[in-house]
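Homework help board

Subject: predicted structure for assignment chain

Our instructor gave us this sequence and asked us to write out the predicted structure in token form, then describe one feature. I got the tokens but I'm not sure how to describe them. Can anyone check?
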Amino acid sequence: MAIARPPRRIEAWLLVLVVAGALLASAVAPADRMTWFMEVVWVIVALPLIAWRWRAFPLTLLLSCLLALHALVLIHGGAYTYAETPLGFAMRDAFRAMGFDAVRNPWDRLGHVMQGFVPALLARELLLRCTPLRPGAWLTYLCIAAALSFSAFFEMLEWWAALAYGADADAFLATQGDVWDTQWDMFLCLCGACVSLLLWSRLHDRQLGLRRDS
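My token output:
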């Protein structure tokens, strides 16, 4: 079983303080209270769960940093709603300056890239540490499948929210008039998962103390 090399105490506390501080700040006056809660509930649940299990099951520094980054993306989207995020508008303006025909606020797109980028590595760490699996094709496939299954579940949550709340759920759905928004969301999740595994697998193996055959 792989053994994680966790962040140093000061690094772990810094990540917790950044995420908790951003979460508390976002709760002061969000654009839409229901949307804020539905977007940040993952952070509200995950932060104490990770803290509770940390002594017995600390995460690698890489995964810890990526989880914190993902949390900040969710918190920013929840505070302003994804269609109205200031950082999203800044991204849109940057795309326009580069010659792209950017119309919508792309923060929602970034959120779904992160929905694959981070959960794929989370699945990788859990599978390597809790099962006999080792780096290879099966591990890669299962990590991508895990990220996509979470993305599909999230799309069903959006569907249920639309059925339950009607127009009140529009800010949570963040479709911005795109009839193909669900398909784009899952495709971007797939892209994020693949890029993450290509980019981080070797570093992740080192932080898990795994040796690769050269």
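Reply (TA_rk): Your tokens look well-formed. For the description, you could write something like this. The chain has eight helices and no strands. That's the kind of observation they're looking for.
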